[in-house]
Amino acid sequence: MRTDVTHFNCEVSEGIAAIALDRPDRKNPLTFDSYAELRNWFRDLHYDEEVKAVVFAPNGGNFSSGGDVHDIIGPLTKMNMKELLAFTRMTGDLVKAMVNCGKPIIAAVDGVCAGAGAIIAMASDLRIATPEAKTAFLFNRVGLAGCDMGACAILPRIIGQGRAAELLYLGRSMSADEGERWGFFNRVVPADELMEVATDTARWIANGPAFANMMTKTMLAQEWSMSIEQAIEAEAQAQAICMQGQDFHRAFNAFVAKERPVFEGD
Question: Helix (H, G, I), strand (E, B), or coil: what is residue 17?
Fold first, then answer.
């Protein structure tokens, strides 16, 4: 896995990739370059055998303030339609790359999590927050629609249509407590425990059956557009494929031997 990235931090250890935006002095805004590099990194991750799970971490007490006002917002006001569409497609491609990377992603959210930062948290598989986390889909507040980077499709599936509409129309911050009650955050933990809990969760996933986890992530995404009948058939095929894997046999043999299975991802 490439760790020699330029526009964000990346460390890989024991099958876990820990990544974080690296502009803590400005609450970790995204730039044209960091958008593109994150998109490419997640695309490549699909083919990586070393990484089993990802932790998208905060930096300096904040997750991300979204698109940089000076490096992105300002230039966007001077672009023509073709250039603007190229940009919005590129940002959407980041979400698609996260959804299709085949590896579970855990967002560890602290402090400001706004705009595209909130989208990155939304596009992750699990979200763990501190009490100080403030999540805002604030596109409406800068004169834009809430339908950004898949927000109108994904957010209602996480917290419900009415709550998603409230956040997208008002652009207000969702507190950590609200986020946990609404199902956006899986857990809220003290700030000094955030990375430990997120990493422990990632380690649990990384020690599990990697191919089966990839299949679960794939089905979670693909079944959005399926009927119940189609979904049941798709899951029957997916599970039959997993049953041919060696991890399934390892789990059975370990159970018979009254041991804990050691999965190898095949």
Answer: strand
Mind listing the pLDDT tens digit for each residue in 94-127?
999 999 999 999 999 999 999 999 999 999 999 9
Cα separation, 237 vs 225, in Å, equals 17
Residues whose CB falls within 8 Å of the CB of residue 129, separated by 6 or more in sequence, listed in order: 108, 109, 110, 135, 176, 179, 180, 185, 187, 188, 189, 194
The tokens describing 167, both together, are 């956040």
3-class DSSP assignment, residue 40: helix
pLDDT 10s digits, 143-200: 999 999 999 999 999 999 999 999 999 999 999 999 999 999 999 999 999 999 999 9
Q: DSSP label at 25?
A: G
* Sign, Cα dihedral of 64, 191, 134, 222: positive
